[in-house]
């Protein structure tokens, strides 16, 4: 493996700064985390997007959240084919091994993956339709929800709505996992759906009874 | 989807605290990020583990890192079967759409997924061998590297070495992606392998020439 | 005193969040409390246990409860030896200075101190028997009640019963304080015994006539 | 024990409200806390004063802080006489059993116990000098620090300074506990001293190098 490079200087510097300050001030906690293992109370599934940091919004410190980040915070439907599924493995680990109490799906505004899905559903992104497009095949998880937003004329509004649907479809797909459904039903796991507006710092929570999101 | 619950009170409180402080102080930047989109300089692939926050170690602000977090920071080999692959979709997006300059794989100590892989390779975890075990099938990505650590007698030492190998196998698998290999060869993308020791706040960088990690 | 460290970052962040939200919204009340002093209606004696917050269960706001928290919410018998007694000082202050109207003792399930007492009474905890064991000597307050639960075969049931007895022995010991007994008899102070089940969110109140606890 | 009364109606109502809302929304977490036990990261020693809620200021949820509350957040010097010491028992439990990572002493403004100590040191409170005064004998822990504030003419300023000294004397006395000193020296426990101004919502942290408190 000949291609790995040294760490860029600006990151080396930042690391040493963190080591001398944050690490040093919290050394007791870091050593404790290393010896005692992790016992996070919640798992969060959020987007890879560089603008959304769940640790920031919720002031979460090391040890609090088990965080899986993928494109558009999507959870695929359960499959028992024996194939390799990264998101399913993360959920398996969080629910069955760490036994988290909460599983939070966090969607966000201005999601590139969602925009790509809209373009794909409207025939405007042939490259995503290609069989070998990883982004396209991943966004197929969201396709079934496109109908819900197909008639929204305002393009920004439409994207916002489909972003909220990433949370809804992920929650629905979560319930197709037998071990998730049974943990939810016997009250050892609760699910939560959130959507954040990056520019406004807003946060909405999904209310299944009303079938819509409300400001937190 | 009837099972979603309201956001737990302690997170509502923390969110409002963040909104009134961090968001308020940086509102200009958040609005800029919303309108201009994300232009992260680097992608980081790290573990879901609650104890490892790349944003913390590198003092990264919103907009800096495109972050994919999965079990044991593993990247599978390239497959063009047209199936759905979350990690591959994240790499596709980062390299082809965002055109990040750096792709960093960050492994860590006390990784539960790695320990699970060791147990599986030693026949001590039949539940992971089961076809329908998501964790087991995901950790299969790392299996080929078990031979490199099989003879290390000290159990902790063995786990540390295999954790470093999650980074090596991920870098190797990255190079099987045609678009990654070509971006690396024409110098538009550089790869980096890191491993952090949680308790000691240590950070090591992979040097492919020497085939080992060095303290940063 | 060279060993004090800066406040951990996660608490600094949370404090600033509280200052900008809760404090700001209630600033008038906080300033009133500072100038007018405290006039709590009730004193609560509860356990240090991190899972039991009387302010939470009773939705108590700043200024409502004078709260003394110690191991296993125990009140020792009155002693007039002139030695230093923290719990007695707290009761002295609440009854004679603040003149609270109610004194509530709140016990809880899964109390570590109570389990330690059971182990000690059964000869299973030599370290607690040691003269210099603070926990052991503090739990001696509860020893006299062990006989009441000695024959309960179910270990969990036994612990739950002895937890309820922490409340009973504390109420009995309270009445050995002359100033408490006289305030109770002339109706200027009423005593209450409660026990809460953490997992079920249950609350029971002690009825001395029946010598048992009833669901609230 | 004939003197326990039913729970006052206003508290019964508040309890039922909590049960139907907070408890219900977080039921999964409460059940988890009951079965898994408590693993608080920090112990806090604060005053019984009704106006100071550390859970509020730090947005702490159930399971986070092990909280010991006594008069004026005082920790007495270590004694190995085999007598009963409530505060020492709480510290023993937190450090040796729960193995908390942080021990925070939180003092506050307008502390009645501190004012009582000033009056006592100035000969203005004969009732506190009496041998059987629990409050007086408890505040003896703080007496040695009176000299540091004896010459401050402004009465409010003097009280504020002696309140800060409750934190300093407590930290000093903490270090006389052998198990605390050794945990601090081998980096498995860190100590922190804080003082909060109730009316202003302010928070200061003790810096031993400079021997003074700084705004957080």
Describe what you observe in this structure:
The structure is a homotetramer of 216-residue chains. With 216 residues, chain A is α/β, with parallel strands linked by helices. Chain A folds into two domains: 1-37; 38-215, Carbonic anhydrase (Beta-carbonic Anhydrase, Chain A). Helices cover 44% and strands 17% of the residues of chain A. Chain A has a six-stranded mixed β-sheet with strand order 2-1-3-4-5-6, covered by helices on one side. In chain A, a hairpin with a 4-residue loop joins strand 5 and strand 6. Chain A is globular, with a radius of gyration of 19 Å. The mean pLDDT of chain A is 94. Chains in contact: A-B, A-C, A-D, B-C, B-D, C-D. Chains B and C meet through helix 1 of B and helix 1 of C.
How many angstroms separate the termini of chain A?
48 Å
**Helix/strand structural class of chain A:** alpha/beta
CATH class of the largest domain in chain A: Alpha Beta
SSE series of chain A: HHEHEHEHHHHHHEEE
Query: What average pLDDT do the residues of chain A reach?
Result: 94
Largest interface: A-B, 106 and 108 residues
- How many distinct domains of chain A? 2
Largest sheet: number of strands, sense, barrel closure of chain A: 6 strands, mixed
The CATH superfamily of the largest domain in chain A is known as Carbonic anhydrase
What is the 3D shape of chain A? globular
How are strands sequenced across the largest beta sheet of chain A?
A: 2-1-3-4-5-6
Q: What share of the residues of chain A does DSSP label as strand, in percent? A: 15-25%
Radius of gyration of chain A: 19 Å
Q: Per CATH, what is the topology of the largest domain in chain A?
A: Beta-carbonic Anhydrase, Chain A
How many β-strand runs of chain A?
6
Give the uncertain stretches of chain A in residue-range form: none
| Oligomer type | homotetramer
Helix percent of chain A reads 40-55%
Family (chains A, B, C, D): Belongs to the beta-class carbonic anhydrase family.
Keywords (chains A, B, C, D): Lyase, Metal-binding, Zinc
EC number (chains A, B, C, D): 4.2.1.1
Protein name (chains A, B, C, D): carbonic anhydrase
């Amino acid at each position: 493996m000949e291609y790995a490079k040294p760490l860029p200087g600006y990151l080396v510097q930042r690391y040493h700064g963190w080591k001398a300050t944050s690490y040093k001030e919290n050394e007791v906690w870091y050593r404790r985390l290393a010896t005692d293992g992790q016992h996070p109370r919640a798992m969060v599934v959020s987007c890879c997007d560089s603008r959304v940091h769940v640790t920031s919004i919720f002031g979460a410190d090391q040890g609090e959240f088990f965080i899986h980040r993928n494109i558009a915070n999507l959870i695929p439907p359960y499959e028992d084919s024996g194939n390799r599924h990264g998101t399913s493995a993360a959920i398996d680990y969080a629910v069955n091994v760490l036994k988290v109490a909460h599983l939070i799906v966090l969607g966000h505004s201005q999601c590139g993956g969602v925009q790509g899905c809209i373009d794909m559903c409207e025939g405007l992104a042939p490259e995503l339709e290609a069989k070998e497009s990883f982004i396209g095949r991943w966004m197929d998880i969201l396709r079934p929800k496109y109908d819900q937003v197909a008639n929204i004329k305002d393009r920004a509004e439409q994207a916002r709505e489909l972003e909220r649907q990433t949370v809804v479809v992920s929650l629905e797909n979560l319930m197709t996992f037998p071990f998730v459904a049974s943990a939810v039903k016997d009250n050892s796991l609760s699910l939560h759906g959130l959507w954040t507006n990056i520019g406004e710092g807003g946060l909405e929570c999904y209310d299944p009874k009303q079938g819509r999101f409300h400001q937190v």
